[in-house]
Amino acid sequence: MRAEALLQALHEGRFDEQLRTVYGAQPLTAAYGRIESVVKEFCRHYDRDGTRELMIFSAPGRTELGGNHTDHQGGCVLAGSVDMDTLACVARSGDSLVRVLSKGHNAVEIDARDVVIHADETGNSASLVRGVAARLTELGHRLGGFDAYTETQVLRGSGLSSSAAFEVLIGQIMSDLFCDGAIGSTQNAQIGQYAENVFYGKPCGLMDQMACATGGVIAIDFADPKEPLVRRCPVDFAREGFALVIVDSGASHANLDDEYAAIPNECRAVARHFGKGRLRDVDEAVFRRERDAVLAACGTRPTLRAEHFFAETKRAVEEYETLEQGDFAGYLALVRASGSSSEQKLQNVSLDRPDGDRLLRVIERARELAGPAGAARVHGGGFAGTAQAYVPLDMLEAFKTGMENEFGRGCCHVVQIRNVGSTRLI
Fold first, then answer.
1. What crossing angle do the helices spanning 28-46 and 16-23 adopt, rounded to 10°?
2. Domain 3-232+419-424: assigned CATH number
3. Which whole-number Å values give the CA distances from 209 to 42, 110, 161, in the listed order?
4. Structure pTM?
């Protein structure tokens, strides 16, 4: 559909049904405005005469609800996609060039036929686009070119995984344009992880991409990373009387790659002590029996991180079960236990540097302001990232005011669960 016709149909409400499926209770006027923005900006950069056939795609951010740093060891997690997304206006091109312009960022241009690693792209968006194209090519798909303009609500550093949202968005676009929509959510997530691991150079697990690609609250068992077991878990936090709030610590993310990489590396070191490649394949009873030998061979922190893994992966399953049973108080007790384990054993909430305790201070203050009925824990990777808080609805405004007075205006993001993952909207 061309730009003029698309915008007319949008404002006539002809897309309302599919928009409500994706955005739920959000006012559609907000979705109208964002779609109109990406269409107009796309036309300004790529379609000045308004003659190209346009499509609109969306991919949400994600929140980790349980299973902190377990996915990369074949563990279990609980995660959900959120109502903050990345939108793209897209049109095919007549060549093999893929051009992606994201608001506030430099334009990316790759040739879909050139799918080898470019060292100068490591750590930037071009590597993610090329990595997705490379993996699809390896899988036997013949890709062509397209132009895309994107705008996002999933802010970098917000802890809602803007990179995973971008990866699965590109995968969704390429699937629809060149693969007859054959790439399912799990495969799209795996392709995004491949792009981030191999081309971008970040050794992430698969949880972020799975949540962004699948939608809703999902329990994921990564025992077989090629075929992770996914179970949906309907839950409405507001109906339980709570708001889910992500709090940005505001601490610097600079020079943290080694800290993040140390967690899977140290967990694998413990696994290798038992002749295994990951902790999921280590018998926990044997680990407990031989803990002193592990401590001597691997050191204190790797041993504690392994203890966290064994407890946390079971806890993620228990969180799913309590939600299934409608035991929300029991679920929050597990959230609190997850937070304590992350702080004391996983040790991903503070660093030995000037602002290294800021995230811990955010978590502690969030617990105070959420009260005894609420809960707060580290969210995602940790160190200098974000906290996650469950706040009673009648305390939400006071919570936001208190947190923002201490840690900066705009640090609180109240999120809702979105039940649809990456998708074509129009």
1. 110
2. 3.30.230.10
3. 26, 22, 8
4. 0.92
